[in-house]
Amino acid sequence: MPVDYLNQVYETTDPDDLRTLYDNWSASYETDVTESGYATPKRCAEALAQFAPDKSQPVLDFGCGTGLVGLALEHAGFSIIDGVDTSPNMLVQAGTKNLYRSLTKIHPDEPKIGHYNLISAVGLIGSDAAPMSTLYTLMEALPKEGKLVFSLNDHALAEPENIGRLNEWLDCGAAHLLFSEHGEHLPKIDLQSTVYVVGKP
């Protein structure tokens, strides 16, 4: 019987167990999420494109997985995409798409992000592959006038402290909310997400 990774990922809370789960899931990940109607990569890529007049700037696909977000970014007009992930097996799958300029394995506790004016973190932050503290890591790395697109699924949105952490950046003016839209994430399992684009002033 096939392993039900899609449900397991929302039930697993230990970070090490999650990383192992994603590593083991790499071979069937795209099939599983595509069959569930995975809509968030396209939504995020199109949202970021609205606020990126120069799509020739490099984009960092943080938590790139097997490369589904990279494909969406490419279709939205971005031409230079770098991917990072904690799962080596996911990176192998992403490499088969031949669309990334570079693919790098990062350590979850000390992710080295580098300098990017455009960053995406899709289907990653909150109650999934990375803790909400990842938002801080990405926002701190984002330069002045940089843009970050990310998503929070319904599981993450159900935890008020997650929105509170986003609002900490917005309320003090350290970041501006440029875009927010709730919509489809994995419609076949009736799960939605909110896509956000935030910018550094």
The assigned structural class equals alpha/beta
Q: Level of helix content?
A: 25-40%
Number of helices: 9
Mean pLDDT: 87
What does this structure look like?
By secondary structure, the chain is an alpha/beta fold. It contains nine helices and seven strands. It has helices at residues 5-11, 15-25, 29-35, 40-50, 68-75, 88-95, 133-141, 154-157, 160-171; strands at residues 59-62, 81-85, 102-105, 118-121, 147-153, 176-186, 191-199. It has a seven-stranded mixed beta sheet with strand order 3-2-1-4-5-7-6. Helix 4 (40-50) packs across helix 5 (68-75). The protein is globular and about 40 Å long. The chain starts with a helix and ends with a strand.
Briefly say what this structure is.
By secondary structure, this protein is an alpha/beta fold. 38% of the residues lie in helices and 22% in strands.
Fill in the keyword field for this structure:
alpha/beta, single chain, 9 helices, 201 residues, globular, seven-stranded mixed sheet, 7 strands
Indicate the topology:
Elements (H helix, E strand, L loop, with lengths): L4 H7 L3 H11 L3 H7 L4 H11 L8 E4 L5 H8 L5 E5 L2 H8 L6 E4 L12 E4 L11 H9 L5 E7 H4 L2 H12 L4 E11 L4 E9 L2
Parallel strand pairs: 1-2, 1-4, 2-3, 4-5
Antiparallel strand pairs: 5-7, 6-7
Helix pairs in contact: 4-5
